[in-house]
Amino acid sequence: MRLPALLYRVYERKLTRELIGAQIPHHVGVMLDGNRRWARKAGFENVSHGHVVGAQHIADLLVWCRAAGIGTVTLWLLSTDNLRREDDEVATLLQVIPDVADELSAPGTGWRLRVVGSMDLLPQAVAARLAAAELRTRDRTGLQVNIAVGYGGRQEIVDAVRALIDESVEAGATAAELAERVTIERIGEHLYTSGQPDPDLVIRTSGEQRLSGFLLWQSAHSEYWFCEAYWPDFRRVDFLRALRDYAARHRRFGA
């Protein structure tokens, strides 16, 4: 074993020991960013290949989350902004993402999938494959994995409010009653992630330090951790460092 690899293993074990008995997030959101920049750095002519490599890394992250005792993970794979572009990158993503869902829903994996996003914005064949993958895992009790596809935080809030209004109108609510029904709790019940805890920790790779609309409503009290590594280079050591940093923070659910 080369010395750097040995030191890496030693450091990984050290971080693992430090997390024994520590505060662990129940729900982690991850922005898998930097695939194209990784591909350029690696010398690929077609930078979309970075998405293929990044997709192959997702199962590693889920194994790490399960081992750490995390219950829910939300992975942002494709935004509504991405879908507005018509280029090779989007075409690649629309091929890769259903393959990821099929692999995660395969027998023996144990992951329980939920697709979150505006499915009506996706090509019908893609939406159908994602729905089928989710259905195959509905009776599982393992790690909850939210696949955010065609996802935008503002659009999610709009969709939630519209669903609340539709529900209220169907119930025969008056305008005054409808106004009273628009509460934080009721809007939360109509979000894509309804019934799940809000994310305690949001991780973004690639060095960017912004949310870009990811889980806007749910992340009001989340802790954030930004990593310089591009997603395909994100290591278990990086993940453990994020958990250690989270465990050391004093969370304030207010100003």
Automatic annotation (TrEMBL):
InterPro entries: UPP_synth-like, UPP_synth-like_CS, UPP_synth-like_sf. The keyword Magnesium applies. Mg(2+) binds at residues 33, 223. Its EC number is 2.5.1.-. Its cofactor is Mg(2+). Gene3D superfamilies: Decaprenyl diphosphate synthase-like. The active site is at 33, 82 (proton acceptor). GO terms for molecular function: ditrans,polycis-polyprenyl diphosphate synthase [(2E,6E)-farnesyl diphosphate specific] activity; magnesium ion binding; Z-farnesyl diphosphate synthase activity. GO terms for biological process: polyprenol biosynthetic process. One of its GO terms (cellular component) is plasma membrane. The keyword DNA-binding does not apply. Keywords: Magnesium, Metal-binding, Transferase. Homodimer. Catalyzes the condensation of isopentenyl diphosphate (IPP) with allylic pyrophosphates generating different type of terpenoids. Belongs to the UPP synthase family. Z-FPP synthase subfamily. HAMAP family: ISPT. This is Isoprenyl transferase.
